[in-house]
Design brief:
The chain is an alpha+beta fold. The chain has helices at residues 18-30, 62-73, 83-109, 112-117, 131-149, 156-174, 187-199, 207-213, 216-229, 231-239; strands spanning 2-6, 34-38, 51-54, 57-60. Helix 1 runs parallel beside helix 2. The longest helix is centred in the middle third of the chain and has 27 residues, at 83-109. The protein is globular and about 55 Å long.
Length: 240
């Protein structure tokens, strides 16, 4: 049994982290049995989630989780794709993870209102007297990471322009297909599904959500991803 270590539901999503959602979609796509548990970043090899434990082997990072599932279990997440399509799929995945992810981080952590709606809840376990200090320290680290990556150096207008260009490219590639490159999901759909779900989270005051909502095919795509991979969560929510 594979054990997926992630954060658990939050922000109206299966997980606050799009990388954890991606890992869960990959596992569901694989058809392999797995169990999801609440992880601990302090004990994770890279200090981040997700990670999986498979037959005693610990694999951190969603991309390396994918590589492990492919090599250890003989899974081809891109079966049926041409070499060109595989290249497009990987390029889309990395655009999401290496650019659009940082837009999400900036929107959730630097905007004070969004921080209060979302990330502030991560610190509830910190003793109250220490909480302001810990929050300030972590936010400073996040801001430094954003500046180092480059997104933090852009104005709001510049970030929005980059976000619009990226999602317009993805929407154009998707077109009228059910999934990114065909009628069945490929490996990149785990990332695109996760990031589209994350972008459409209803709890944030989000320019990113507005960009995604301006592309009806992306909104319809997100609904298909939810229906295919998280139907039981929707059923529980509807019954509540």
């Amino acid at each position: 049994m594979i054990i997926l270590h992630s954060f658990g539901p939050g922000f109206g999503l299966p997980d606050p982290s799009p990388f954890c959602i991606k890992a869960e979609i990959l596992l569901r796509m694989s058809g392999l049995p797995f169990e999801r548990v609440t992880g601990n970043m302090r004990s994770a090899p890279k200090g981040k989630l997700p990670m999986i434990v498979d037959d005693g082997v610990t694999i951190p990072d969603s991309s390396f989780i994918r590589f492990h599932l492919e090599s250890a279990h003989g899974i081809d997440f891109d079966t049926g794709l041409t070499p060109e399509q595989r290249g497009i799929a990987w390029a889309v995945e990395k655009m999401l993870e290496e650019q659009l992810y940082w837009m999400v981080v900036h929107e959730r952590w630097i905007d004070s209102g969004n921080f209060d709606r979302g990330p502030r809840h991560f610190f509830k376990a910190v003793p109250a007297p220490l909480r302001p200090l810990v929050i300030a320290m972590v936010k400073r680290k996040v801001r430094n990471n954003l500046d180092g990556q480059g997104i933090g150096r852009h104005s709001a207008e510049e970030r929005l322009a980059l976000t619009k260009r990226a999602y317009a490219a993805i929407a154009a590639i998707l077109g009228e297909r059910r999934f990114l490159l065909g009628d069945t999901p490929c490996g990149a759909d785990a990332a695109l599904g996760a990031f589209t779900m994350s972008a459409l989270s209803p709890i944030f005051d989000s320019a990113i959500r507005g960009v995604v909502e301006s592309h009806p095919n992306l909104v319809a795509y997100e609904a298909r991803i939810r229906a295919r991979f998280f139907a039981e969560a929707a059923a529980v929510k509807a019954a509540a």
